[in-house]
Known about the structure:
Shape: elongated
Amino acid sequence: MLHDHERRALERIEAEIAATDPTFADRLRRPLAGWRFVLVLVAVTGVCALAVGILADQAVLALVGVVTIGTFVVQHFSRRTHPTGD
């Protein structure tokens, strides 16, 4: 976490960017739509790896699926619980 003086400095920088270039500031606040596609693709790949690993009795492939799905879930919920200033 940031210290109070660092947070205030960051807020001043954000306000200055928003005042001088609102379009750029808006783009910084929004998550990239392309990353959503990548994350969904990773989640689907993880589910497929888990299913194939279980059906083919391949523990390593099933483990890769579980780790992939777990990473997706942690990343997804960490972005929801730590907003980027919206």
